[in-house]
Sugar-binding domain protein (Lentilactobacillus senioris DSM 24302 = JCM 17472), 335 residues
Amino acid sequence: MIKKVTITDLAKRANVSVTTVSQILNGKEERFSDKTVARVKELQKEMGYVPDFNAQSLIRRSGQTIGVLVPNLNNPFFAEFNRGIEAYGMSQGYTPLIFGSDDSPEIAGHYMLEAIRRAADGMIIASAVEDVNQIDHMLQQNGLPYLLIDRSRPEKGDEVDMQNEQGGKMVADYLHQMGHQKVAVVITSELTLNLEHRLAGFMERMTELQIPVPEELIFTTQLSKQGGVDISAAIWEAKPTVVFAINDEIAIGLNRGFNDMGLQVPEDISIMGYDNIDMAEYTIPALTTINQPAFEMGETAAQLIIERIKNRDKAPQHVTLPINLVERQSVRKIK
């Protein structure tokens, strides 16, 4: 059986005390000569010594970890969002613990408790929660600062917002400019707050533009590519000229479903998405959508939560990031 290299083994090889090794590896190397620091670090690499995480956490009084809770790890939008958190977090010495809730408030609650149990320093929540004030109580009672992504925030919470209501209005304005009067909408049965705002903005502007969206043109499916495939036949039977999918995953599935039926997008039916995930520009035709800067969203979230970890008394932070229309080839103009 291979024996794990310990800090004692490293100290013996370096001919220094365990305390000296511990302090050098915990960022207090200015107390020692350059020769001693170089020797310890060289031997650490040679011997493959990895410091014990729990021991370092006790020394620092911080595990330098951030819990990250997203609704779906398979969604490309959240993959890019997580990359942003990782990039900024690592630049500041923090490691993200990433959890996927599968859009379940119960699973989300379980992982928040796990973040507390594993002594995370802060929490970024971009997932479904049943009662935000209850979450506030749970995390604050355990001294865990948190930040919400596109969620209704309690009085003391931090938040990064993506202008979902305005984005919905942008979709309506664009479809109106393109001459569409019979518009279908695809949503999911359990709308999170950000999707509620997106839909509300769209419906409000459609009413202002005097373009009715009757109930028979509002379709419900899973928030996934397969959900788009599954609902495509029912949408085609209703004969809209364009479909607004509440996210790009559904839109890409719709494109596949219509294609399997022998239809041409946008000649037979147009599709409008939302999110601008990386696949959107590679579909045929490329998807017209609303761009949400997922990577920057993750970077901003990581920056704000680390600031909160370092300064608990700072005033609540509410950052709104810009969105924009990305026009490609999936929506035709009706003359």
Q: What stands out?
A: The longest strand covers residues 65-70.
